[in-house]
Amino acid sequence: MKKKQSFLFISCDEAKLICDKAQYKEASFLEKVKLYFRYVWCRITRTYVCKNKKLTQAIERSQLNCLNTSEKQNLQQQFKQALKKQQ
C-alpha cells in the first residue's frame, strides 16, 4: 500500500525536474516552494541544484555559436541526400 504524501513533500526525482524547470524560468511559485523545502533537508537535492547552477553558468560563459535556421535546413538536406545515396 502506498503512503499518502504530504502537500509539500516531493521526491528527489520531482525535485530534479522542478530544478530544471526553475533554471529555464518555467516553474510555478508553488513548485519553487516545494523545491525549497526539499532543498533544506535533502543533501542529494542540494548537490543536484549546485551542480545544475554550475553547469548553467559554464554554458552561459562559454558563448556557444549555434547554427542559424538556414544552416540547419541546409545540413538537414545534405543529410537526407546522403541517406538516399546509401539506400
Structure in a nutshell:
The chain has 87 residues and is mainly α. Helices cover 72% and strands 0% of the residues.
Low-confidence stretches: none
First-residue to last-residue Cα separation: 54 Å
In round numbers, the mean pLDDT is 88
> What is the number of helices?
4
**What class would the helix/strand composition place it in?**
mainly alpha
Organism: Mangrovimonas yunxiaonensis
Protein name: Glycine dehydrogenase
Can you walk me through this structure?
- This protein is mainly α.
- It has a domain at 8-62.
- It contains four helices and no strands.
- The protein has helices at 12-23, 29-41, 43-62, 69-86.
- The longest helix is centred in the middle third of the chain and has 20 residues, at 43-62.
- The chain is elongated, with a radius of gyration of 20 Å.
- The chain starts with 11 loop residues before the first helix and ends with a helix.
- The mean pLDDT is 88.
How would the blueprint of this fold be written?
Layout: H1 12-23, H2 29-41, H3 43-62, H4 69-86
Organism: Mangrovimonas yunxiaonensis
Protein name: Glycine dehydrogenase
Keywords:
elongated; 4 helices; 87 residues; Glycine dehydrogenase; 72% helix
